[in-house]
Structure formats: C-alpha cells, structure tokens
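Hi L.,

As promised, Transposase (Or an inactivated derivative):
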Amino acid sequence: MNDFKGRHFSGEVVLWAVRWYCRYGLSYRDLETMMAERGVRVDHSTIYRWVQRYAREMERRMRWQWRRPMSDSWRVDETYIKVRGKWTYLYRAVDKLGNTVDFYLSSTRNAKAAKRFLGKAIRACKDWEKPSKINTDKAGCYIQAIRELKKEGKCPRDVEHRQVKYLNNVIEADHGKLKQLIKPVRGFKTMRTAYATIKGFEVMRALRKGQGRTFNLTRDPIGEKRMIERAFGVGPCVMTEAMTLIEEHFKAAA
C-alpha cells in the first residue's frame, strides 16, 4: 500500500518536511518558508497534518532500529509539557550512556502513571535488554510502581532501585535538548497531537544520538534520511544502496 496516496506531493517531499520539523526545532511557518525557498510551495497547516500523520508512524516503524539500550542501568524521570494550557507529564527513560529507552505522555503524575510507563518500557525489551538498575528521583510513585511490577512478575525481581540525584544528570540534560525542539510549538492543543508530535521528536533525537547506527550506512544525516525513507518504502532498498556505496568506494580507490 502506498502511504502517500492522495497527497499532492511525493513521499520523499512529505518525509523531508516531517524529518526537518522533528529534528531541528522549527515552527511550521519557518518550515513553510524554507521549503518555498527550495521550490516547494506548501502551507504550514498542511505540514502540520503531515507531522500528525507520519511522525507517530515513523516512530512505530523505526522502533526496532533505534530502541536498543546499550546499558542495563536506566535513568528514569519526568518532565513537564503544556497541553491546552495545562501541565502534563512526559515520562522518559535513558540508559547511563544517554541513549533513549522509552517515553510516555500522561495527564497525571502518580504511581499508576509511573507503573504504566515502566511496564511499557520493560515489556518492549528483550531479556538481555532489561534493566538491572533503575535510578529515579525521590518521588514515592516510583517506589510503589517498581514494587508492584516486581510483585506481578513484569519487572525482574533482582532490579536495584536507586534514588541518587546526581546519577540523573544524564536524563536532565536530555530533557533540556528535547525541550529545545518543543519550544517552537508554543503549546499543544490536545494530548493526541502532543503525543504524536513528541514521538517524532524522540525518534529523531535518538537517531541524532547515534542510535540505530547499524542501519545508517553512511553514518551521517543523509544515512538517517535514507533509514526513514526505507521505513516507508521510498527510494532504493538497503541492498541496492549498499551496493551503490561499495561501487563508489572502489571507484574512489581506483
């Protein structure tokens, strides 16, 4: 099935706009101007609809490529996101190297939400990817959430729960970089649109940090672009691209 059937622009152009918006912290109007300078005249409201449609799909299709914790020591924390004038809570987990593990947007900040997030993050891991240590702040909701997950068998019983403040500096710094992408949005209207957009931000942040490098054949932003296009069946397949790179290498060496 063609994911871009009925669109006035090709899949490559649509993904170009979505990727730029989610990677560089632009407003929709800024992106409209930048695309017009490159000969693509599209309204900012259309770009908004593209982001809502394809950002979450991009995260879903590429999850198996970027979501691979490199360490079994996790840092878990939540940050604040304003939705329709009210604060909501973005739960996030990274490993000790700063690689994104998972995220979850909730309207509440309590043990139930923390349990739902940690359960989601652990459930998506292979046995060898599950954490041996989880560091959080001193919020009581995490203590209760981890205790209940262990009791239900959804979290390894030997997981060590630590509450050391300085160990969470890694995720606090990562929050700041994510907020730089969120700032131009100037507030979301609904939880649904907020979560869809944040999914795009998170996957592009993960790729920018080098996650999924195994599938990035050129190890650069062009390789990231090709990874996303392959996920939607746009352009040549990975084998064709690999053969092209090999041929170029031998030509350069000759």
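The mean pLDDT is 92.

Thanks again for sending the construct details.

K.
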